[in-house]
Write a structure and sequence with these properties.
The protein is α/β, with parallel strands linked by helices. The chain contains six helices and seven strands; from the N terminus they run ααβαβαββαβαββ. α2 crosses α3.
Length: about 180
């Protein structure tokens, strides 16, 4: 795991890529993956995993035949993850979340997209594009999980997904809202 100092350094280096000065807690990670059905969800995409707190929990619960595709744009976090994760079920990609489709086998739909991207600090066009693309790669009834530190993303997510529910966790710094969204 990257030290908190490294996380802080990346935040101040580019706060449009790193949305917090501290990594997410295990409590937030557990809330984020709570609704994934690991018995049947076989293709999962993770956007902006940072130091891999969510990634580690996902890997512990994934079935042997499942696949996890991780997209990380930050150079330091990409190097950390690609050097640390050797599980053959995982593909670590150094690219923007806007390019999800390039890494999914043709015609295959995704069971779940988990996003740690700081949506509200991204330019509006990029934010909308990422959420729309995430929705388009999901299978019907597919799951999109997103956490944020405010409720500002709720209207955007409700405009794209058929259902959106929001939970709050104080066991994170800063406290966070967890959005659970389903495709129609």
């Amino acid at each position: 795991m990257a030290a908190k100092g490294s996380f802080i350094k990346q935040f101040f280096k580019d706060h449009q890529m790193v949305g917090s000065v501290t990594p997410s807690t295990r409590f937030l990670a557990e809330k984020m993956i709570k609704n994934i059905d690991f018995n049947k969800d076989k293709l999962i995409i993770e956007l902006g995993p940072g130091n891999g707190v969510f990634t580690d929990l996902i890997l512990k619960q994934m079935e042997p035949d499942a696949k996890l595709i991780i997209l990380e744009l930050n150079n330091e976090f990409y190097k950390l993850l690609s050097g640390r994760i050797t599980d053959p079920r995982v593909k670590v990609v150094h690219d923007s979340a806007e390019n999800i489709e390039k890494y999914i086998p043709g015609g295959v739909k995704v069971d779940c997209v988990i996003s740690s991207l700081p949506l509200m600090v991204l330019p509006q066009a990029v934010r909308v594009n990422i959420v729309n693309i995430s929705n388009s790669v999901l299978k019907p009834k597919g799951l999109y999980m997103q956490f944020q530190y405010s409720l500002q993303s709720k209207k955007l997510l409700e405009s794209i997904f058929s259902t959106v529910s929001v939970k709050f966790t104080i066991k994170n710094f800063p406290p966070a809202f967890v959005y659970t969204c389903r495709k129609a």
